[in-house]
Amino acid sequence: MRIKLVLFLLIATSCFAQKITVYGIGDSTMANKSNPAENPENGWAQVLQQFFDDDVVVDNRAMNGRSTRSFINEKRWDSILKTLKKGDYVLIQFGHNDQKENKPSVYTNPRTAYRQNLIKFVTETRAKGATPILLSSIVRRNFNEQGTLVDTHGLYPLETRLVATDYKVTFIDLQYLTELLEESYGVEGSKKLHLHFAAGESPFYKTEKHDDTHLSVLGATEISKLFISELKKTDLDLKKHIK
To answer: Of 240, 243, 236, which Cα lies nearest the Cα of 91?
Structure first.
């Protein structure tokens, strides 16, 4: 009888054990896109679930056009805090929209508001018993006439590094890793990582498309692989759930 009770408790515990949730917060380079069966654009966190086992659920809350400022002001961060629990993870990647000085609803000064918003994400995540992971912004495909990939993010990736150092947060340098990725594909080949279509080439777009910021399925998958590769090098328990 006692053995049956122990077995029952073990099975019950297993059945009701909470899964680890990996939240993604960030901008369009990370976000889920609508109509994924037809849409050639993907965010890199949109394809992340395939690399984890069944004990992990990727809840990608990244959203097109958002910065640290607007993500907070629109209460998107508050909605995550309501369900964030001990053992969860938060992937934090902003910068693309924070730098838009002509849009006061999203712009942040990298050394002041941007830094403080990152600190807010980190400290409030930890207060819930969860683990933050800071990520520098992925690069844009911005080659000059000489074939050099030129930075477009200014101080934002640096400030992310500094917050990670100051607060002892796991940091994954997607800026550097995606620089290497773009360069490995070359000036022309790297178009495949993004959205480059002639008129009529893609049924999803009515006219030609030349977008060097957002990602194709290939680009999103390649960046997810970079994230997973770096995660394996950390001491985080999350890496035990990589397939």
So the answer is: 236
Q: How many CB atoms lie within 10 A of CB 198?
A: 11
Question: Helices 156-166 and 115-127: crossing angle, nearest 10°?
Answer: 40
Pull the structure tokens for residue 223: 């960046």
Packing angle between helix 174-189 and helix 217-231, nearest 10 degrees?
Answer: 150
**Could you tell me which residues come within 8 angstroms of residue 104 by beta carbon, excluding any fewer than 6 positions away?**
none
Higher-scoring residue by pLDDT: 10, 94: 94
Order of strands across the sheet with 20-26? 56-60, 20-26, 89-93, 131-135, 170-172
> Could you read off the pLDDT of 99-110 as tens digits, one per residue?
999 999 999 999
pLDDT in tens, 172-181: 999 999 999 9
Using CA atoms, how far apart are residues 64 and 105, in angstroms rounded to an integer? 14
> Which uninterrupted H or E stretch holds 170?
strand 170-172
Q: What is the largest CA-CA distance in the chain?
A: 78
Provide DSSP, 74-134.
TTHHHHHHTT--TT-EEEEE--TTTT-TT-TTT---IIIIIHHHHHHHHHHHHHTT-EEEE
- Report how far residue 112's alpha carbon sits from residue 235's, in angstroms, rounded to the nearest whole number: 30
| Measured CA distances, 85 to 18, 79, 122, 127, 167 (Å) | 10, 13, 14, 10, 20
Q: What are the tokens at 67?
A: 């910065």
Read off the amino acid at residue 115: R
Q: How far apart are CA 134 and CA 227, in angstroms?
A: 11
| Total-model pTM | 0.92
How many residues in total does the chain contain? Answer: 243
> Cβ(219)–Cβ(45) under 8 Å?
no
